[in-house]
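#structure-requests
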Amino acid sequence: MGIHAALFSLSLLLSFGLAYNFRSEPAWFSRMFLVMLPFALGVKLVVFGLRGEYDVSWRYVSLRDLVNVTIASHISVVVFILGYFLIANLYMRFYGEALFATLSPEGKVVSDFRQSIFLLDWAGTIALVGGARMIVRLYHEEIAPASSSKRTRLLIVGAGNAGESVLREILRMREDRYEVVGFVDDDSGKQGVRIHGAEVLGRIQDLKEICKAYDVEEILIAVPSATRKQLRRVIELCEGTALAFRTVPGIDELIDGKVTVSQIRKVRIEDLLGRDPVRLDLNLIGRYIQGRIVLVTGAGGSIGSEMCRQICRFEPRSLVLVEQAENPLFDIERELRHRFPHLHVASYIADITDDRRVRRIFRAEKPAVIFHAAAHKHVPMMEQHAGEAVKNNVLGTRTVADAAVEAGVEKFVMISTDKAVNPTSVMGCTKRVAEMYIQELSHASKTQFVTVRFGNVLGSSGSVVPVFRDQIDRGGPVTVTHPDMCRYFMTIPEASALVLQAGAMGRGGEIFVLDMGEPVKIVDLARQMIMLSGLRPGEDIEIKFTGVRPGEKLYEELSISGEDFAQTGHEKIFVWRHRREDWNSLCRGIDRLITMADSATADEIRAVLATIVPEYDPHRWHQYAGQTGPQGAAAPGAASDADVAVSHSLPNA
């Protein structure tokens, strides 16, 4: 406030001086300036104070602050003018002469006050107050010494609003870790243009050469509306470099379209492989969840926990969590109680193969909708422990499904896998048996049983992405089973949303499948993850091919013999018209499987699975066994297959 008072006084002094050309005659300083100063100063101090101008941080002054100074100056000069003429009229009435009267050359008594002072003082106030604030900001941004630590040389992709916002904040925070060398942008009208002193150095296609010429260490992709394809293009253009990549939030995450340094994050593999958001019919989903009691098995898993989060958005009457593992159940229950304090959450530690425990839970909670996410999912692990796959995937599903029928559950949605299509693994085949059971059960009960097939989920526990991250953090090598290994990918939220949508659309007995787009080679995924870590594939981190593991396919498939697909009301979701099974034969086969689960060998279990699922070929993976590509011999621990199954894509034809 004191600094403002000094600036206001200086502005009025300069206004009088300019109006009278700084002459000593007439004696404007003592006769007029000193008389008017208290009034002018009081008006400005009050107006600026009422507008909160004394609380503004000068270091971070912006154009908006300068506009506010201008508005306060406008108000001040209006009050100043009105006050002056009011006082002048009163003075004339009481003293019979003009305020600041003097003799004219003609001998008349006139006022010697020059009204141009008002305009000069208005402009001077804006210039001095605004200029003083800008000087403070410029001092911190251009003159004050920056942090002594070495700053990272950053190139910004995208010379739009987001890029400008980030650069502006980096310049304002000189102690930050970035030194911006320039921009790249494909807009021809921006080539050579300077933004806050940083030049647009070229087009995106010249990225690699520009990075080399300017010793760039990191690239910031400042295009909130960028698609996954555009992000991949930037990464691929920089192949062979040791650059780190960062990005900004998507356009739907930005409230005002502005980006700050704190919002910058590393580019994740999910940004490159995840697909554009799937449109959901929220009203349809809400109609079968809102106000209902919903139960989720496997609630502590990657998919199960995300489903719980999304279900809560639709305001169920109660959410029941069923999970065998204690710690994951504790974590998701605590999170949900914190994020949705008004929602009733009940949690149960339970093994889904425990018939008495499951039925007791259903009788106590009376769920209307069940999402069955509990399953064993790792292909090579289940080849070694075939009996456990049978117990969890087949017996567990049968137990939960039978209890659902007995409890009068309205809808039962099971998560299955693309590995159930022409299965070559025990895991895929047991999931296919579970599909067959609930499809036939749907025809014999009032409960609507729906299946959703998934592809591979990015970042879920035990999937290929965390395995690769761990291998990269340890310095490599990154192990890939086969150079031609391909998979379809989706994000955890997208997978969970698909389950909710399919559950809303299902009427019983359907198998829903999502159009997943293009498959991704696992070796390409490995290369991209290495590059996103700021390292070079084959130089900093080796990629080693280790051979196809038991039960794995090179390519996932879509349908099984006798199935066909049809379009649904959703452009990305398809439904498979499956063949009917003989109920008695299916039940006998399942009973036999369950009976021998703890005593039979893996080969014996595979033989029985083959009698239930004719298209199951446990030896098909052998045609790829031992093929490792150009490098390496077979080794344990190779990653190729992401974890849990989630949906699949239609062929391009």
